[in-house]
């Protein structure tokens, strides 16, 4: 398997280089035949990469520990799904997964565009092949996943995978994230191809919008699953810690989301072409940069790992060359990108969307600066890190502005809003928001922070705007004889972008509401003997027993606690403390009692020698709304993306 | 004045307000977390000032004492990993006033301590936070996991 995989990667590299030559020729000479050649090389490279990744999967499945990567990331004792998922447990394998995803997207793109965008496809293939070449070079010369150990160092079993990664969510989270990150290569390739060919008409960006929505959805899912994993596995009571690894996945999401909004201005008003191209370039650059960040370890130097200078310089060079080439092409074409349209009024949807873009970019600047602060500060002298406080302090107010715009943007008129239209759209929702604020102040008083007050009343405002939009549209359809449900489905079909978009917004509002719940979080560390109780407001936890944990791969203890709310028995909670034998790594598995109102989250911190146990208990209000909001968000995005067949057969022709 | 300039002006105003808000709050230094090696920390003149710092070191073998009654954990850190052999170099006694040690906290673990030095007769480092790092070979996401225990 090692030989087959390695050979495929090397063949693929040769073909990709030849294909790149064909693609550039096709682009420069505008030759349809050479475009076909380039597209075929994309497909052939994809097949070879498919064989390569399949052979690595087989190596993991059969336990081929001659391959050092397999030996370092799996063991015979691991369950088969985790043995296969171990493929993306380390650097070389995850780069191979990156490449494979890129090939899958590229092949799908070539297939989908066999009849359309023909004049662009030569350059599109060139951009995609150039990206493949980089990863192929990396996998051939820098970090080879198929490298074998000399016979005397080959062992009969592997070292196992970090047990924290042996979790169902961890099997799909990286796949989702990569499906998201890598997918932005396609809009990037189209934008780049449009710049290179000078065909900056309207077709490329319609194609691009569709190809952006898909990875954007998966990136969103991936980010949320990452939070879910952290919450269930890392045992610190939270889901997002502004860790560089998390930020790396969040950063490309910001310009991508900005783009999905501003592209509507381009669609409707033919404005902001340069800006949209910039956002696409920025998104893809950040995808590459994020992969670089998590795979090179330049930021987490307290926990520096596997940092190879050659990897760092090669990858950073690639990111810079990609961004630089795109920017150069953009500058060269800036004359043809000028829009004849001008912004007419500050009170307009264009201005609202523009402001929304600015806020997304501002959040990006905050996150980028904070994530790379250790690097910047080291260059200036003392190496310094910024904590979660920095991120919260700056992103909080920005998120509030964004929330406000979420309510205003979609409702305000294009070009110039009149006073009457503003009254018609916003009086009701503004009243709902104000009323919510009053209720919150009266009901919660001291517990309420200004941030929570802002977030929840703005959330109510936005929800009211969405409800009002749906209500007006459905009512007008019902007057024409449709039932309410019928009307709803008609809206989702006929104006999917608009009414699906509202659902996406609703999901985002719910996520933000849930995250704001953290201002009411309570936590308590308590040491108790069996029979004793931990009290937390109207909730109490009676510590019953602790038992040894019988399992094959790990040992440890499981404690049992009886959970009561207002003397009402609710559940028996069983947090665990594990020690994975092979990996010599401990792990705390929290027990969570989850309701719409709050989560009770218990961690067994330690069993002490005197027979007592130390527990950390969290009450996390509203946390569940984050996951619910996430599901709503995904549903809304699917509504927007859903391919509806053309209504009349005549339109097909 | 064109509308574009108006929007840009408004956005810049918002950005300036935020920057001011951030600087005003960051000046207290609360969000800045420095770290230095134990040797650097001990060589620095600010040691006695009681200024909050982050210090990096390794837990000395057999030094961990969990005092459940006092609800604290006492241990010693040294400048070099104990399993590396050789002289342990300078060391520092640490008092962590909590029983909530991270999962990876054990003999020989690489730790970053957040807290300040208590001078006087019984010199000790009073840690508010203990971050532990897995000393093993795991790459990638395992690192994020390694911090998990004490993040708040």
Describe the 3D structure.
The complex is a heterodimer of chains A (653) and B (152). Chain A has 653 residues and is an alpha+beta fold. Helices cover 64% and strands 11% of the residues of chain A. Chain A has 21 helices and 11 strands. Chain A has helices at 2-29, 32-62, 68-73, 80-85, 91-112, 118-142, 168-183, 185-197, 203-234, 244-269, 273-296, 309-332, 334-337, 349-380, 388-408, 419-444, 450-479, 484-494, 496-516, 624-641, 649-652, and strands spanning 384-386, 522-528, 533-536, 539-548, 554-565, 568-573, 576-580, 585-589, 591-594, 598-607, 613-621. In chain A, the strands form 2 sheets. In chain A, strands 3, 4, 5, 6, 7 and 8 form a 6-stranded antiparallel sheet that branches. In chain A, strand 9 (591-594) and strand 10 (598-607) form a beta hairpin. In chain A, helix 1 (2-29) runs antiparallel to helix 2 and helix 1 runs antiparallel to helix 6 (118-142). The relative contact order of chain A is 0.07. Chain B has a 5-stranded mixed barrel with strand order 3-5-6-8-7. Chain B has 152 residues and is an alpha+beta fold. Chain B is built from 3 helices and 8 strands, in the order αββαββββββα. The model of chain B is unreliable at 135-152 (pLDDT under 50). At the A-B interface, helix 9, helix 14, strand 1, helix 15 and strand 2 of A face helix 1, strand 1 and helix 3 of B. Strand 1 (384-386) of chain A pairs antiparallel with strand 1 of chain B.
């Amino acid at each position: 398997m090692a030989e087959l995989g390695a050979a495929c990667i090397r063949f693929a590299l040769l073909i990709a280089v030849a294909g790149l030559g064909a693609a550039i020729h096709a682009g420069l000479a505008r030759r349809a035949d050479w475009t076909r050649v380039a597209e075929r090389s994309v497909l052939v490279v994809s097949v070879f990469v498919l064989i390569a990744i399949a052979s690595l999967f087989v190596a993991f499945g059969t336990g081929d520990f001659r391959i050092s990567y397999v030996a370092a990331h799996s063991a015979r004792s691991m369950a088969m799904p985790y043995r296969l998922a171990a493929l993306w447990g380390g650097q070389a394998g995850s780069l191979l997964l990156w490449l494979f995803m890129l090939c899958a997207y590229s092949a799908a793109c070539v297939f989908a565009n066999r009849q359309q965008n023909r004049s662009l496809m030569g350059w599109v293939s060139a951009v995609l092949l150039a990206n493949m070449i980089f990863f192929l070079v990396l996998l051939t010369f820098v970090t080879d996943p198929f490298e074998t150990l000399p016979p005397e160092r080959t062992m009969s079993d592997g070292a196992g995978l970090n047990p924290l990664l042996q979790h169902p969510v961890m099997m799909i989270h990286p796949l989702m994230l990569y499906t998201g990150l890598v997918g932005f290569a396609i809009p990037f390739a189209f934008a780049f191809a449009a710049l290179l060919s000078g065909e900056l008409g309207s077709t490329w960006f319609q194609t691009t919008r569709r190809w952006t929505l898909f990875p954007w959805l998966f990136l969103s899912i991936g980010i949320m699953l990452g939070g879910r994993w952290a919450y269930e596995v890392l045992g610190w009571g939270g889901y997002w810690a502004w860790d560089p690894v998390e930020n790396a996945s969040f950063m490309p999401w910001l310009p991508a989301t900005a783009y999905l909004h501003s592209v509507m201005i381009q669609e409707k008003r033919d404005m902001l072409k340069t800006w949209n191209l910039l956002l696409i370039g920025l998104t893809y650059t950040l995808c590459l940069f994020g992969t670089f960040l998590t795979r090179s370890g330049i930021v987490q130097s307290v926990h520096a790992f596997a940092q190879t200078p050659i990897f760092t310089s090669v990858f950073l060079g690639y990111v810079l060359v990609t961004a630089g080439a795109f920017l150069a092409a953009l500058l060269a074409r800036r004359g043809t990108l000028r829009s004849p349209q001008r912004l007419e009024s500050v009170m307009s949807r264009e201005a609202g969307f523009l402001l929304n873009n600015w806020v997304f970019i501002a959040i990006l600047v905050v996150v980028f600066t904070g994530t790379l602060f250790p690097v910047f500060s080291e260059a200036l002298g003392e190496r310094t890190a910024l904590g979660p406080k920095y991120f919260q302090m700056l992103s909080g107010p920005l998120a509030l502005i964004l929330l406000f715009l979420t309510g205003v943007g979609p409702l305000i008129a294009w070009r110039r809003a009149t006073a009457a239209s503003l009254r018609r759209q916003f009086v009701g929702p503004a009243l709902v928001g104000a009323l919510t604020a009053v209720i919150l102040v009266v009901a919660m008083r001291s517990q309420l922070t200004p941030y929570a007050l802002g977030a929840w009343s703005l959330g109510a405002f936005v929800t009211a705007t969405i409800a009002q939009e749906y209500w007006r549209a459905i009512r007008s359809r019902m007057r024409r004889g449709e039932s309410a449900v019928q009307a709803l489905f008609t809206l989702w079909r006929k104006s999917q972008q608009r009414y699906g978009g509202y659902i996406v917004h609703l999901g985002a509002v719910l996520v933000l509401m849930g995250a704001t719940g953290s201002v009411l979080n309570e936590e308590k560390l308590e040491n108790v003997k069996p029979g004793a109780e931990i009290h937390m407001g109207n909730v109490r936890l009676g510590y019953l027993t602790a038992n040894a944990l019988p399992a094959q791969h790990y040992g440890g203890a499981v404690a049992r606690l009886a959970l009561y709310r207002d003397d009402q028995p609710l559940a028996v909670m069983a947090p665990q403390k594990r020690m994975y034998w092979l990996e010599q790594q401990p792990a705390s598995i929290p027990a969570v009692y989850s309701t719409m109102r709050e989560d009770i989250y218990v961690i067994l911190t330690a069993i002490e020698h005197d027979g007592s146990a130390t527990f950390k208990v969290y009450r996390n209000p509203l946390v569940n709304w984050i996951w619910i909001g996430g599901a709503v968000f995904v549903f809304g995005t699917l509504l927007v993306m859903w391919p509806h067949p053309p209504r009349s057969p005549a339109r097909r022709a | 004045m064109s509308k574009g300039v108006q929007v840009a002006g408004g956005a810049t105003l918002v950005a300036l307000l935020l920057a001011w808000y951030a600087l005003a709050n960051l000046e207290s230094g609360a969000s800045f977390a420095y770290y230095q090696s134990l040797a650097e920390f001990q060589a620095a003149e600010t040691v006695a000032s009681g200024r909050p710092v982050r210090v990096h070191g390794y837990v000395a073998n057999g030094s961990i004492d969990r005092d459940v009654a006092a609800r604290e954990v006492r241990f010693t850190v040294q400048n070099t990993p104990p399993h590396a052999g050789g002289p342990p170099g300078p060391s520092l006694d640490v008092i962590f006033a909590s029983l909530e040690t991270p999962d990876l906290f054990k003999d020989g673990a690489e730790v970053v301590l957040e807290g300040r030095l208590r001078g006087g007769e019984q010199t000790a480092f009073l840690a508010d936070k203990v971050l532990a790092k897995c000393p093993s070979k795991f790459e990638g996401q395992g690192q994020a996991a390694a911090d998990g225990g004490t993040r708040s």
